[in-house]
Design goal:
This protein is mainly beta and 514 residues long. 5% of the residues lie in helices and 41% in strands. The strands form seven sheets. Strands 24, 25, 26, 27, 28, 29, 30, 31, 32 and 33 form a ten-stranded antiparallel β-sheet that branches. It starts with a helix and ends in an 8-residue tail after the last strand.
């Protein structure tokens, strides 16, 4: 099948690159295309019917509307010339048929003032195919669609299908169902002139069967725009970061979860990426892109707009990236309490932040007190080297002593791509870890509750580990807090001996806290 892909790409490049600029005799307007079509005997195919569609278009089905938003219906003149004026820039499919013969080509049209003539097209007897698609469990049929052609058929309950009167060419076809987010099969099939043949079982849809021409939208992105100054010099390979919002991306043009996003380097090689977060309703997304062998001055291409695209996954995103680089790009050390002061470990360009220690009210007795909180920096002990933060507190079980850190400068932070927060604790009693929104009077917090052990214990808190929203003491849950975080807090309740060390956030970097 790879050979067919190579032939198709070569044909497209030929039709795009081996064209003439007309001197004014065949195309009446600028920004237009024309092509002359012939019958097998070399005579012009006068009055042949033609249609130009976007290469990404597929026919509608009763189950899933995927409309061809642009189509140009045409008819050849007495000399076999087909003309289309004012054609928007893009990649297109041209289908021509006349009395049992036909042709199918794809071509790129550039939005220029030139008048372009495509290579001559010869019409040949039509062909047909039959085949099968493996239906997912619980599915009684699928729809078979052909990219660039207004053709769709429904399989039987065994997944069998038949398509006739097809132009002889390499055709890209797919199978979809109303129950699946992505297409279930995706394949390139050669239709032979005048023959009907069985193509067998269509290939399962994967990123390796995709045709980039079936993606509707594209945009160039400068590599250096994916990196901040503090990330320089770049390692090879490395991972860059792309933030999308309503100012630079139209989320209505992509699938609901963004699975149709694709990235390519300047040589057309697919780039591994991760949708660390995607929220089409709030129009925000955070993308990590693997960059290897590219200079900062080069450009990559982002494509999107393919309804039914498979989820590409993110395997290999960090492969070969040095551990030290991963730590810088993927984590933020918040506090190791080794500096001799309450200043956090957050680095430039983040403004300095300091830990603070406060009791809920006068019913809570802390040692040390708020005024002498620096005395809480003590030798970690119990087999752990260095210093840690240590307080003792007494009071009613529902009262707390709070160790907190302000994480914002002017506005709340978006932590929707958080992987986890890791810290070490020991002691006796009960505590809570929380992310809070203190700018909004209704903001509340997301809470992780835990009991202490007398030995140092590593805790890894992921978004799913936060207590579900119950509004008790302002616990609105992670879903409500993740887009508006202002503070990190540790609450020690009642009579407690609380030790804390080495607090690190995973999934974020300095830019998220700047």
């Amino acid at each position: 099948m790879n050979g067919i892909w190579i032939l198709l790409v070569a044909a497209i490049l030929y039709s795009c690159g081996n064209r003439d600029v007309a001197g004014g005799s065949t195309v009446e307007t600028d920004n237009a295309i024309s092509v002359q079509v012939f019958l097998a005997d070399g005579k012009p195919a006068s009055n042949a019917i033609a249609r130009i569609r976007p290469a990404w278009s597929v026919a509608d089905t009763a189950a899933k509307q995927i409309a061809s938003l642009y189509a140009c219906d045409l008819q050849a003149d007495s000399l076999g010339w087909i003309r289309c004026e004012n054609l928007p820039a893009g990649t297109y499919a041209l289908e021509v048929q006349s009395a049992g013969v036909g042709a199918f080509i794809q071509f790129e049209h550039r939005d220029t003032i030139s008048r372009e003539i495509l290579n001559d097209v010869s019409l040949k007897p039509l062909g047909s195919i039959e085949g099968q698609v493996e239906l997912p469990p619980g599915t009684s049929y699928a729809w078979i669609q052909v990219y660039g052609l207004n053709r769709v058929v429904k399989t039987d309950s065994s997944g069998n299908f038949y398509l006739d009167s097809l132009p002889p060419s390499a055709l890209h076809i797919r199978a979809i169902t109303g129950k699946q987010a992505s297409v279930i099969a995706d394949d390139l099939i050669q239709v032979h002139s005048g023959y009907s043949w069985n193509v067998g079982t269509l290939s399962e849809a994967t990123i390796y069967t995709e045709d980039p021409l079936t993606w509707r939208y594209s945009q160039g992105i400068e590599v250096d725009s994916l990196f901040s100054d503090w990330m320089l010099p770049l390692s090879n390979p490395t991972v860059g970061f792309l933030r999308l919002d309503s100012t630079n991306f139209d989320f209505s043009q992509a699938m609901d979860d963004g699975r149709d996003l694709r990235f390519f380097d300047e040589f057309g090689n697919r780039l591994v990426y991760e949708r660390a977060s995607w929220n089409a309703n709030l129009k925000t997304a955070f993308i990590r892109i693997r960059i290897a062998g590219l200079s900062p001055s080069s450009q990559i291409e982002m494509r999107w707009g393919c309804n039914g695209a498979v989820d590409p996954g993110d395997a290999g995103l960090w492969e070969g990236v040095a551990d030290s680089v991963v730590k810088e790009l993927y984590t933020v050390l918040v506090g190791d309490f080794e500096t001799g002061s309450l200043q956090s470990n957050l680095q430039a360009p983040i403004a300095p932040h300091f830990w603070y220690l406060i009791p809920q009210d006068t019913n809570v007795n802390m040692s040390p007190s708020s005024d002498s909180a620096h005395l809480a920096l003590q030798l970690a002990g119990s087999g752990r080297s260095g210093t840690a933060f240590h307080i003792t507190s007494t009071g009613p079980s529902y009262k707390w002593a709070l160790l907190g850190l302000n994480l914002y400068k002017e506005n709340a932070r978006n932590f929707d791509h958080l992987d986890s927060v890791v810290f070490w604790v020991r002691g006796t009693g009960y505590y809570q870890f929380a992310f809070e929104d203190l700018l909004d009077s209704n903001g509340g917090r997301a809470v992780f509750s835990d009991s202490l052990d007398t030995v140092w214990t590593r805790k890894c808190v992921r978004p799913e580990d936060f207590t579900p929203a119950d509004s008790i003491s302002g616990n609105y849950g992670w879903e409500a807090i993740q887009y508006s975080v202002t503070n990190m807090s540790f609450f020690a309740f009642g009579d407690v001996d609380f030790w804390l060390d080495d607090v690190r956030i995973y999934g974020l970097n300095r830019d998220d806290l700047e």
